[in-house]
């Protein structure tokens, strides 16, 4: 336990010295894993960008060639302005919804909040598929497009609408947190001075939530600029950077230019990550220990307006999912709408997507189990042990890096690194194991931050007492830390499982016919023009994700009863 707290007695130090080495070895193993499965693929992208097809060093020639290609530069412009429009639309809509949840007394808040989580349970392309059935060439409401002066849904209009629906929950989660942290004393002082509701909103509410608004805007912009599924399904001839990478690598086998586009995709993500990190530090510094939680007061007219607004947003979410479900059961769209299971049978049996669902569930389960174990052990070594400061700094940096790496870029790096013949890990290429490792790395940062938050809540005296009693750190970890942190581990496992079921961009380059995932099969069916079976398979993924969410909730309650009873003993 000397790695945690070194006793002063020489004999205790000698007996505990081997635990130092065990803790440091464990931390070193996690650093090596992150170097191999995160840093090395990113370095491979940089290396590929300065080489030609024969592997010869060409410096910046590939970047110059890219800058001289009008179509590719147009894709860059398309990505930036579409992402900007989605951000300008989504953030205000999400802010209004978050404001209703945090600052009103409207009914059914839990129901509205649950409905907004629907896009997280299915691949992002579900919203694009649904829009095609609503406004496509044979869509139910195609004529409505003429009213707003839009010729067709394919291209920029479809991408913008679908992305707004897909990224709405991400922006909402940030803004709900920002508005929940309000200090009621400011509003009480404003009321005492007779300040109007409008002035309180612009002088107290908005300034207090500005960092949340900035973070939500940055996250939204990054998610849109790096998303692949929606532009692939509904983009048509409107090219963006994400689809360009796919075409260059898979279609043209031009890995050099694909690496250049990958670096371009990495640049805005890194920039937004840096700004968001700065914003979060400023936000933390502004929090007051004496703040009084804000409790909204009933206001009939205001609550009615907020309820109507939330009903409108919830209707859009349900319309997206509902149309996908309806189309998946329609016998032959749009001529024979009688319910039928043929699209499910075709997808699961004839198109062998059933195997893809088995692969997806296996990968998601492995990602949840091994990802949670890796994340929590690494976080424990960083927070509850001491020594090896250079190694510790490297681990912290590598743990935060995945947040700034788009899934498409990470998958591209895996091609360059693991497909190299001289790489001893080449045998992992096209395996379910590699896709699981890629998914763990892709979503590593959020799980790491969750684990660190849970560990920081534990008093360091647990380790101090263990050290004084000469108890090895791993026994303290197993008997004390792990049981107390079990609720956080369940949340991390659920996060990994749901994202592994729905991910596309991180694994689109890594599968083989034997390891095809359900989300990839949906993409392939859409590309082949089999939209109804694609909708059916997307609905099945949503059902599996929803079922998994309920099971994790039940597991969480069971864990609370088994390991958290001590929290109620003092009541």
Question: What would you note in describing this structure?
Answer:
This protein has a domain at 56-327: MetI-like (MetI-like fold), CATH 1.10.3720.10. The two termini are 33 Å apart. A hairpin with a 3-residue loop joins β1 and β2. The longest helix has 40 residues, at 10-49. The chain contains 24 helices and 2 strands. It has a two-stranded antiparallel sheet. The chain has 571 residues and is mainly α.
Task: Using brief descriptors, characterize the structure shown.
571 residues; mainly alpha; MetI-like fold; two-stranded antiparallel sheet; 24 helices; 2 strands; 1% strand
Beta-strand proportion = under 5%
In terms of quaternary structure, the protein is single chain
Structural class: mainly alpha
CATH topology of the domain at 56-327: MetI-like fold
Total helical segments: 24
Fraction of residues in H or I helices:
over 70%
Question: Can you summarize the main beta sheet?
Answer: 2 strands, antiparallel
Strand order of the largest sheet: 1-2
Name the CATH superfamily classification of the domain at 56-327: MetI-like
Shape: globular
Gyration radius (Cα, Å) is 25 Å
Which residues form runs of ≥5 with pLDDT under 50?
1-16, 284-289
Averaged pLDDT: 82
* H-E string: HHHHHHHHHHHHHEEHHHHHHHHHHH
What is the first-to-last residue Cα distance? 33 Å
CATH class value of the domain at 56-327: Mainly Alpha
């Amino acid at each position: 336990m000397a790695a945690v707290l070194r006793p002063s007695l020489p004999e205790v130090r000698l007996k505990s010295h081997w635990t130092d080495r065990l803790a440091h070895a464990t931390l070193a193993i996690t650093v090596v894993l992150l170097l191999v499965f995160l840093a090395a693929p990113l370095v491979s992208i940089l290396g590929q960008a300065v080489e030609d097809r024969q592997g010869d060093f060409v410096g910046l020639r590939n970047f110059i060639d890219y800058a001289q290609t009008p179509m590719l530069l147009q894709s860059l412009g398309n990505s930036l302005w579409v992402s900007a429009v989605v951000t300008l639309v989504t953030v205000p809509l999400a802010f209004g919804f978050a404001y209703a949840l945090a600052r009103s007394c409207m009914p059914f808040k839990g129901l509205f909040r649950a409905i907004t989580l629907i896009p997280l349970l299915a691949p992002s392309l579900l919203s694009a598929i649904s829009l095609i059935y609503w406004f496509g060439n044979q869509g139910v409401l195609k004529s409505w497009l003429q009213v707003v002066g839009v010729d067709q849904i394919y291209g920029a209009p479809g991408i913008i609408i679908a992305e707004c629906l897909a990224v709405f929950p991400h922006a909402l989660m940030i803004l709900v947190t920002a508005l929940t942290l309000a200090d009621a004393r400011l509003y009480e002082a404003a009321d005492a001075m007779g300040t109007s509701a409008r002035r309180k909103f612009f002088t107290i509410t908005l300034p207090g939530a500005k960092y949340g608004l900035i973070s939500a805007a940055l996250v939204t912009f990054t998610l849109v600029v790096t998303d692949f599924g929606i532009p692939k399904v509904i983009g048509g001839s409107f090219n963006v950077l994400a689809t360009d990478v796919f075409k260059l690598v898979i279609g043209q086998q031009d890995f050099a230019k694909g690496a250049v586009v990958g670096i371009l995709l990495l640049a805005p993500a890194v920039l937004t990550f840096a700004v968001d990190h700065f914003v979060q530090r400023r936000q933390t510094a502004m929090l007051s220990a004496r703040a009084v939680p804000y409790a909204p007061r009933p206001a009939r007219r205001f609550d009615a307006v907020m309820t109507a607004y939330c009903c409108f947003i919830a209707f859009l979410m349900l319309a997206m999912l509902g149309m996908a479900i309806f189309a998946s059961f329609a016998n032959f769209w749009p001529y024979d709408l009688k319910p039928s299971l043929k699209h499910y049978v075709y997808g699961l049996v004839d198109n062998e997507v059933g195997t893809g669902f088995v692969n997806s569930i296996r990968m998601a389960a492995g990602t949840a189990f091994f990802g949670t174990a890796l994340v929590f052990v690494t976080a424990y070594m960083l927070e509850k042990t001491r020594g090896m400061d250079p190694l510790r700094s490297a681990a912290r940096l590598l743990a935060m890096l995945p947040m700034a790496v788009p899934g498409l870029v990470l998958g591209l790096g895996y091609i360059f690194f693991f497909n190299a013949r001289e790489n001893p890990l080449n045998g992992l290429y096209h395996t379910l194991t590699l896709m699981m490792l890629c998914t763990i790395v892709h979503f590593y940062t959020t799980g790491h931050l969750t684990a660190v938050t849970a560990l920081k809540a534990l008093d360091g005296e647990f380790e101090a007492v263990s050290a004084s009693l000469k108890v090895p750190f791993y026994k303290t970890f197993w008997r004390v830390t792990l049981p107390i942190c079990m609720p956080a581990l369940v949340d991390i496992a659920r996060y990994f499982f749901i994202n592994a079921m729905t991910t596309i961009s991180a694994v689109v380059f890594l599968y083989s016919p034997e390891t095809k995932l359900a989300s990839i099969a949906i993409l392939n069916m859409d590309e082949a023009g089999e939209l109804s079976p694609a909708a059916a398979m997307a609905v099945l993924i949503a059902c599996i994700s929803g079922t998994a969410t309920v099971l994790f909730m039940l597991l969480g309650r069971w864990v609370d009863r088994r390991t958290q009873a001590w929290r109620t003993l003092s009541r």
